Amino acid sequence: MAVSPSTMAAVRASGAVPNAEYLLSAEGVRKEFPGVVALDDVQFRLKRASVHALMGENGAGKSTLMKILAGIYTPDKGDIRLKGVEIRLKSPLDALENGIAMIHQELNLMPFMTVAENIWIRREPKNRFGFVDHGVMHRMTEELFARLNIAIDPDIEVRYLSVANRQMVEIAKAVSYNSDVLIMDEPTSALTEREVEHLFRIIRDLRAQGIGIVYITHKMNELFEIADEFSVFRDGRYIGTHASTEVTRDDIIRMMVGREITQMFPKEEVPIGEVVLSVKNLCLNRVFQNVSFEVRAGEILGVAGLVGSGRSNVAETLFGVTPASSGSIELFGKPVTISSPTEAIRHQMAFLTEDRKDTGCLLILNILENMQIAVLQDRYVKAGFVQQGAIEATCEDMAKRLRVKTPNLYERVENLSGGNQQKVLIGRWLLTHPKILILDEPTRGIDVGAKAEIHRLVTEMARNGVAIIMISSEMPEVLGMSDRIMVMHEGRVTGFLNRDEATQIKVMELAAQ
Amino acid sequence: MTIKAAEGTAPLATRPRRRRVPPELSIFLVLVGIALIYEILGWIFIGQSFLVNSQRLTIMILQVSVIGIIAVGVTQVIITGGIDLSSGSVVGMTAMIATSFAQSSTWGRAVFPSLTDLPALVPIVVGLLIGAAAGLLNGTLIAYTKIPPFIATLGMFVSARGVAKWYTKGQPVSGITEQFHFIGTKAWPVVVFLVVALIFHIALRYTRYGKFTYAIGANPQAARVSGINIEAHLVKVYVIAGLLAGLAGIVTAARAETAQASMGVGYELDAIAATVIGGTSLTGGVGRITGTVIGTVILGVMTSGFTFLRIDAYYQEIVKGIIIIAAVVIDVYRQKKRTKH
Hints:
The complex is a heterodimer of chains A (513) and B (341).
Chain A: H1 5-14, E1 22-33, E2 36-47, E3 51-55, H2 62-69, E4 77-82, E5 85-87, H3 92-97, E6 100-103, H4 115-119, H5 134-148, H6 163-176, E7 181-185, H7 193-208, E8 212-216, H8 220-226, E9 229-234, E10 237-243, H9 249-257, E11 275-284, E12 288-296, E13 300-305, H10 311-318, E14 326-331, E15 334-336, H11 341-346, E16 349-352, H12 356-360, H13 367-372, E17 381-382, E18 385-386, H14 388-401, H15 418-430, E19 436-440, H16 448-463, E20 467-471, H17 475-481, E21 484-489, E22 492-498, H18 504-512
Parallel strand pairs in A: 3-8, 3-9, 6-7, 7-8, 13-20, 13-21, 16-19, 19-20
Antiparallel strand pairs in A: 1-2, 1-4, 4-5, 9-10, 11-12, 11-14, 14-15, 17-18, 21-22
Chain B: H1 24-46, H2 54-79, H3 87-100, H4 121-145, H5 149-167, H6 178-182, H7 188-206, H8 208-218, H9 220-225, H10 230-256, H11 267-277, H12 289-308, H13 313-338
C-alpha cells in the first residue's frame, strides 16, 4: 500500500522509520512518452551512506529515472520505496519534503537574490512582526556552510558567483532540507579540476553523514574516484549494478554500448602540409594576451587548459565573434582581419561552439533548417531563392554520412539527443567545406557511441587536409587525437607538446603552473 | 568478474511519425466555426444568411485588408523575436504626407499649392519612402543600440503620430486626385493585401531572407555564429514592416479620399492580434503568412458578424480581447506540450 507523503512525513518525524536495507529503491519502473518507451522494467537500489553512479549513453533512460526519483515525472508502473516504505511522489516539492533533493544540471537559483535568500526561500526565518529576519538567516547560512566547508558570503547576490560556487549553494540548499538522498546530474561538467576536488570532498563528507548520493556522469574517471556502486542503463532497460572496484573501464563501456568500441581515438597519421593559419601576439583586452601559434593542413592542434584559461575566448576571437584588440592573423600566408563570423566563414573557417544549446542549435527548427543555415551564405541560393531540392539532397546525404538517428530531416532538433544534435551542427560546418575547423568541446555531454563517431569524423577531416583546432577538457581526447597540444593558463600560452612527448602529467603541469 | 553483453536492441524512438497536418488547419477550422455560428444565429435572429451575401463579404474583407497589409510586416518582425508597435502611427504619418502630394488643383487649400495634380506615382513613392524611413530608424535603433524592440517602436509610435499632427497642424488633407483615389476603390485594397501576402509568403518560405529570418528568431547567437549578419538583417525586416505600414497608410487615405492625423489609431494592435491568432509565436522563430491571412480574416468576420447581428460595438472590443488572449494561451499550451520531455 502506498503511503501518502504527509503520513510519511509524520513517520519520519516520529523517528519510527523502518530500518530497511536500502535507503531508496525502485522496482519494475516503466515510463512511456508519446511514441517512446523511456524506461521499461527498470530497477534501482541505493544504499545508505554510498555514492551510486548512473551510467548509460544519452537516451538510455538515466535522466528519466532520476526525474521519477525526484518527483518530476510520475512512473506509469512500478513501485518506489523510501526506507522500505512505498511512496508516491507528486511533485519535486513533495520529493524534497520526503528527503529527496535533486541538483539540476542547469542550476535553478535566482540571480538577483542573495545566497541566503536562495537557500531559505519559502522557509525564511521571521521576526515577531512577520518580516524576514535577515540576521538569523545569515547565521543559519553560515552554520550550514561551516558544516559543508564552503566559503561563500551569504549576503552576496547569486549572479556574482561562479558556476562552481552556485553549485555549492545548490548543494547547501539541498542539505538544508535534511535530505537523505541527493541526486546530482553531471555536477562536474562546468567545473575546473580544483573545484571538482572540492566537490568530491563535500560529497565524501555527506556520505560519511549517512546520505545516499545518486550521481550521474559521463566521465569514467569520476566513476572510479567517487562512486561506490554504479548501475548501467541502455535503451530504457536496466543492465546491471556493480561495485566500482570490481570492474574495469572497458567492462563498463561494454555494458553501456552493448558492443565493443573498437577504437576510441582513431588517430591516423596523415601527411601534414603547409601552414594554413598563423596567429601572432593575438590579444583580447583583459581576457588573453600574446597568443601565437600555427596550424598546418591535416594537423590537429589540441588546446588544453582549465576552464577560464581563455581557450574558448581565443577560438571566439579567431572566428570574429569577439574581434581581437591587437595581434595578427595570417591565412595561407596572407594577413587578414576577421571582425565577424560572416568574414570568418568567407575565409573558409568553421567553428563548432562550446555550448550546443546557447550558440549552436536552432532548437525549434528542424534538422534541415539547422544544417543548411551556414552554407546558404554563399551557395545553394540563386537570385535570393534557396535551391530547395539541391540543398535537401545534400543535407540528406550529410545526415546519412554522419549517421544522425532520425526518421527524416523534418524532425525538430530539440527532440534529438545531445549526440545527434552535435552531429547536425558538425554537418552544418562540413557543408561549407572549411579549410580551418575550430572545435570547442566537440564531445561534451554526449554518449560514448556518438563520441567515437565524432572522433572518426575529425580524423577524416584531417585526412582531407583540413587544419583542425580542437579545444577539450577531456584529457584522453586531447592526448588521443592531437598532433600537437597547446596549453593555456590564465590567458597565456604556457607551452606546446608534441604528440610523442605529451602525457597527462605534462599537460597538467603547464595548465596549472 | 564477467559481464554479459546484452544483444543490441533496436532504438525505441525511431517509430515513423504521422505526416504533420499544416499548422494553419486548426486556425482555419476556427474561422469556419465562427462563420457557421454567425450563419446559424443569423437564420434564428435576423432571418437571413450571413455568408451568402457577396456585398457583406466584400465589405468585410475591405475592412481588414489594411490591417492585413500591416500584419504581413508585423509577422516578419515577430518571427525575428521582435515587436512593432509603431505601425498604426506610421499609417497616420504616411497618410498625411503622401496625400499632401496627391491633391487636386481644384481643391483650394492644398498643402503645397504649387505641387498639385501630380501623377499618383509620386504620393505612392513618397508614402513608401516615409514608411521605409520609419522602419529604418526602428531597425537601426534595435540592431545597433540593442534597445528592446518594444521600446524603440514605442518611441516611433509616439513620434510618428506627432509628425502626423504637426504636418498640417491637425488639419485634414483632402481634395485628392482621381488617380490616387483609384487605389482605394472597388476591391483594390484586397488585391494589394493578397499580392503583398503572396510576395512575403514566398519570401519567407523559399528565399534566403526567409531562412535567415526564422534562424534569427530561433536563436540569435547561433545565427550570428553561423555567419548571419544579424544587424543588417534586422534592419531589413523592420524596413519591410515600415514600408508595408506606409503602403497601408496610402491605401487608407486613398479609400477615405482624405487623410487625417488620427488615421490608423490602434491598427498596430489589430495587426499584432491577427498575427498571433494566425499562430505566430511571440517568442520568435515560428510563424507563417498564411496563418496571418486567416487571422486577419477572423478579425474581419468577427466585426462583420457583430454588425450583422446588430450587437453593440462595445461588445466587439471585449470579445476581440478575449480572442487574442485565447490565441496566446493556445500558443503557450502548444509550446509546453512540445517541451514536455
